[in-house]
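Quick log. Single chain, no ligands specified.
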Amino acid sequence: MQNKGLIKLFAILFGLVSLYQLSFTFLATKVEDEAVVYAASKVSGNDARQKAAFERKYLDSVANDNIIDLGIAKYSYNDVKDKEMNLGLDLKGGINAILQVSVKEVLKSLSNDSKNVAFNNALNAADERQKSSTATYLDLFFEEFEKTAGATKLSDPSIFGTKALSEKIAFNESNATVKETLQKEINSSIGTAFEVLRSRIDKFGVTQPNIQRIGNSGRIQIELPGAKDIERVTKLITSKAELQFWEVHTNAEVQNFFFAANDKVANLLKDDTVLETEKDSLKKDNIDALLGETADSTKVQKNLFSYLFPNVAQSQQQLSSLVAQARVLDTAIVNNLLKKKEIRALLPTELRYTKFLWDYKSITGDDGTELIGLYAIKGNRNNTPTIEGDVILDASQMFDQLNKPEVSMTMNSSGTKQWAKMTGDNIGNFVAVVLDDYVYTAPSVNQAITGGRTSISGGSMTITEAEDIATVLKAGKLPAAARIIQAEVVGPSLGQEAINASFISFGIAIFLVLLWMILYYGKAGIYADIALSVNILFIFGILASFNAVLTLPGIAGIILTIGMCVDANVIIFERIKEALSSKKGLKQSVEEGFSIKGALSAIIDANITTLLTGVILYIFGTGPIKGFALTLMIGIATSLFTAVFITRLLIDRAVAKSNNLTFNTSISKGWFENIDIQYIKKRKVAYIISGTLITISLISIFSIGLKQGVDFKGGRSYVVRFDQPMSATEVASTLKGAFGTAPEVKTYGNDNQLKITTVYKIEAEGQEVDEQVQSALFTGLKSYLGSTTYENFKPGFEKTGSGIMSYIKVEPTIADDIKKSALYAVLGSLLVVFLYILLRFRKISFSVGAVAAVFHDVLIVLGVFSIAYNIMPFDMEIDQSFIAAILTVVGYSLNDTVIIFDRIREFTNERRGKHNVLINDAINRTLGRTINTSLTTLLVMLAIFLFGGDSIKGFMFALIVGIVVGTYSSIFVATPIMYDMTKKEDRDN
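-> predicted structure:
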């Protein structure tokens, strides 16, 4: 092997980088473990909310402390946290939601709630069609309008030809042109909703959040790993944006109050325990509270100015709308102090209704501390703003005459009058633009603005800041709040259990594989184990480096790639053993085993087919399935490198030192040698067996059917844990009264845990519906819950008794989209693989044989799931995870088949003889590899199945069945069909 030095250097550097990246995860975990110990010492009993609060308190207190010093760089806990490996919801808990911005509501708003019959009929028809169509809502609406509108156009004054849209839609404009304008407006509304949600989530530094738009579908995906207060999260992401315009007090007007308050607070805080005893009353008005965070009160101070830094005005030139600043971590303490009745009593009459609101973003101080500004809003008895945000027609970032960024804002006629009065009354003062109780800008007013069009600018305003403000202003005209159409919630208790189960199953699987390789291949097996260990390091290092999300299916993908890494070594070692058995020297045999003519060609073909499957999965999958596909693809690349290059380096070194390296042990010596099975002669028996299995599967599928999961049919599914063993039948009967019809109830893992699936009110819209269903579930189960309250029953926070451990909600519309995407994924993978095999082997008989075997495997796995659904004590629903399992089975089956086909092609090109003899010989030669790989992969899968989490058992069972069937089909289905088709091709030619 050439370039050994370069490969060694690359492997060492890559290994060091991987260890470096993984070290951040270990360091962050160490600090978090310390936080858990601290919280446990502070809380008596099992109050999960208090424990979460104290954990957050501890982490806040050490957030900026250096926990590692490398000499050239220092890292605080926050720095380490940013670089650690991300864990998915199924390992960490939290919420994953897809929100839908209603395009229908956008259209109705743009039309000023038009009463035009053709317009409303088209909307209603589009509603119905959307339930079974993947087309965009606008396209469906446009098609329906064209059908029924006759001579009426969308630009008609009764629809979109309104005064508000006169600058964008001309009178009598064609429908096609109006549609383009509408699409821009819809995209703008969706983009604004996205930015508002991102602002809510991002501005407080939530750990590892993820928010992204899903194409042009009007859907937004939000993932908050670690979120515990699910109820507050839900309100946060579904509440409509509240844009308001307020008058503002200057810093000069409130500074005397601050000085008086400072003295009063000093008296209040003479007792150092005041803040500690009031910690439970601190309610942060940002998303930190959603993750159980409380303020850092470990350093108790003596006055208000220990936390709040007033912006003192000593002259007219120093007047400002910014009245003070505070450390971000101290905002909750400041809020609490300023709300105290003793402090509010110090406000003079003209400041009686003052509201103190924070800036929407923080700045970094000279000492690196994160500071945030405070504003004094002129409130009133009714707490109503001077102007509501719904008067905004449009807003955009522009440039002034000096090419500096500014914001251009246009109001409707009502807003124009209100704005003229507000600005006229505040010349020389300030007005604030407030969204969700955060101040985005508070500019000074130089003159009354009467034209309805306003420019907001500032000497230091950046383009980004101008774009943010424009987005906020446009949020004032959002027609409807985004609603959750798909959600998955995993409680932290279930997440921790999944982590523990994953580590156990992962450790057992690795141990079994390492042990088997040593028992079978001896010293060579040790070298393969070293390469396998390096492969695992590389996989986790890459995941950590790119902040990829690790999920339970992702761990399964890693373990599957471990099997593939073993497979590559097995193929190489078997080729070396063949060369040695033909009396070739050790060095020559090793060269041949690692060559393209030896094992490398088969390894590359097998890995490419699996890689193609992974690519299809990644394109069409969502959530955990993407995680599985990502780890599978990364694993394929690293497995190929370690199996071919790292193992080669170790083998070559051993050969150079000694000429007695063997590739078997006293136990395995002679296994799979001199085998002479006539597979082709037995193909008719195999056809009968396979035909029988397929027939049974089809009968079961069409009679019993397949149990679809909620992500394919819609509905809500709750995993509920109880303090005692439960009867699924009894609970289903009990819940019939709560839901109208009996839900599906099945034991989920242990006998004290049930999975309850219902379609109750799934067609109803509105966030309150989710609460109603959850409340009905609690009421129905109350007799089984003992002393558990509704608050403790809800998902989120750690559970020590009964309660919802996780739940999934999928509305029927998106369920149909998910099902179609899954179907496209399966068909797409089959088509891609068919074309690849055709290109690689240049014979259609090879492609047909491989794809026929895949269909055979898929049908049998489906049949097993149909027959066994009501028998097995674990979840066997057909859902996205099952589709991932099916595609993995496709990849594995093709992997096996390609290895055999590759050897058949080799024998056909190099030898003479009857085709059936060559095929039998090829299968016999690869039988050792086939059984060895299948056995090691099965050991791995069984370890995960037996010791992994409950949520992954159905997924693993599908893989186990698929591996067994796939191993059989590669020998007894794919090859015989290829043989029979080849004979037909030869006759036709």
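Residues 272-301 have pLDDT under 50 and may be disordered.
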